[in-house]
Design a protein that fits this description.
By secondary structure, the protein is of the alpha/beta class. It contains ten helices and five strands; from the N terminus they run βαβαααααβαβααβα. Helix 2 packs across helix 3 and helix 2 packs across helix 5. The two termini are 13 Å apart. Bound molecules: cytidine-5'-monophosphate. Its EC number is 2.7.4.25.
Length: 208
């Protein structure tokens, strides 16, 4: 049986960094499930298909190679926005959730991060974390990340995008983003990544 750490939370909350740190620390495999939605969105955009073409999206969800997904290719702002529109379709979610569950069963331990890991994908995970931070702090972090990578951005536009995406993710009918009943809440608004990692490690160590 694989030991799974389920991490959920909104965009730029720090959940991805935390997931990578925990995976490296415990020697667990990591899956950023947001990339699976982004991979489908990119396939649709590249093929010039409308994002609400369910049959094409399901086919894309079945056929992309999980081991080939790369955040640097899929990180683009437009792809995140398209991914959140793809993510409202239950038929697409069903295919991706099954592939994510398959990943969670491999190896000694896994870390999965996303929006519905603790509630839908791995409801029996022994550790569930829900990572949040204020929208303003998340927008600032994303802004500095983009500048740090040599890109250009406008903080107000990022904030507007974050608020719109939070709203769509939290209010969709199928698998809305919300903490599982047994999730530990981690508000990183005033925390460094190091402090968040230490808090998470204490929770995981207690469950191992
Ligand atoms: O986390 P990231 O920004 O890469 O996710 C892109 C979009 O994919 C999210 O806005 C959300 O709509 C969707 N998503 C989801 N369920 C997940 C992970 C991501 O619906 N488990």
């Amino acid at each position: 049986m694989s030991f799974t750490i389920a991490i959920d939370g909104p965009a730029a909350s720090g959940k991805g960094t935390l997931a990578r740190r925990l995976a490296a620390h415990y020697g667990f495999r990591h899956l950023d499930t947001g990339l699976t939605y982004r991979a489908v969105a990119k396939a649709m955009l590249d093929a010039g298909l409308p994002l609400d073409d369910e049959a094409a999206a399901v086919e894309a969800a079945r056929s992309f190679d999980i081991s080939e997904m790369r955040r640097d290719v899929l990180a683009e702002h437009g792809i995140g926005e398209a991914a959140s529109r793809i993510a409202v379709m239950p038929v697409v979610r069903r295919v991706l959730v099954e592939r994510q569950r398959e990943f969670s069963r491999t190896g000694a331990g896994t870390v999965l991060d996303g929006r519905d890991i603790g509630t839908v994908v791995c409801p029996d995970a022994p550790v569930k974390l829900f990572v949040t931070a204020s929208p303003e702090v998340r927008a600032r972090r994303r802004y500095h990340e983009i500048l740090g990578n040599g890109g250009k951005a406008e903080e107000q536009a990022i904030l507007a995008d974050i608020i719109r995406r939070d709203d769509r993710d939290a209010n969709r009918a199928d698998s809305p983003m919300r903490p599982a009943r047994d999730a530990h809440l981690l508000d990183t608004t005033e925390m460094t990544i190091e402090a968040a990692f230490r808090a998470a490690k204490t929770i995981v160590d207690a469950a191992l």
